Amino acid sequence: MEFARPDRVLYTNLGQGGHIDELLDDTGLTHLTEAGQIIEAYHDRGCDELIHRALKEFGTEQLPFKRFRANAAFYYIMLLAFFLYEAFKRDVCEPVVPIGCYPTRLRRTVIDNAGKIVRKSGRIILKVNTATWNRLNIEHLWHSSGSPPQFAWVS
User: Fold this and answer.
1) Whole-angstrom Cα distance, residue 64 to residue 70?
2) For the stretch 112-122, what's the b/e string if a residue is b when 16 or more beta carbons lie within 10 angstroms of its beta carbon?
3) Residue 27 DSSP symbol
């Protein structure tokens, strides 16, 4: 209900003529000191939260080792794997699942499906039922997973 919404107060040092304003002016970002831009930046902070949620769902929230270096290596490998997951989701699975989906949905939709791998006449065949084939558009997934996207180098 509109009358029951809590009020928010944003307290900032932007636009007060301090050192941060000078740094923003030097980089050409003076517009970020305006009230409308500060409020917009406040509203956009939720997007960062969703990335952290997806990363926690993909990996783990607790680091498994007692030593810092082992945990750091584990964390960086988890970040690399999360990046590969995001790239796979965007490059291959886009027609099947939305880009904003979380790892559990991608796993349940694309990966956790019943199928049978059969050898016949020297060929390896993946057998799935017709409903799964049509729902996942497996032919498209197969072709897009075998042909990576083309990048244009800009110099």
Assistant:
1) 9
2) eeeeeeeeeee
3) T
Torsional sign, CA 59, 61, 64, 65: positive
Assess contact for 92 and 145: CB atoms under 8 A. Answer: yes
Task: Supply the pTM of this predicted model.
Answer: 0.64
Q: Long-range contacts of range 71-77, CB-CB < 8 Å, 24 or more positions apart?
A: none
Q: What is the pLDDT of residue 36?
A: 85
Asked, for residue 5, whether it belongs to a domain, the answer is yes
CB 96 within 8 A of CB 110: yes
In a domain, 80, yes or no: yes
Burial class (CB in 10 A: 0-12, 13-18, 19+), 141: middle
Condensed to tens digits (0 to 9), the pLDDT of residues 109-150 reads 998 999 999 999 999 998 999 999 999 988 888 888 888 777
Q: Structural domain tally of the chain?
A: 3
More confident residue, 45 or 138: 138
Question: Which pLDDT does position 139 carry in this prediction?
Answer: 87
CA distance 118 to 135: 22
Residue 155 lies in a domain: no
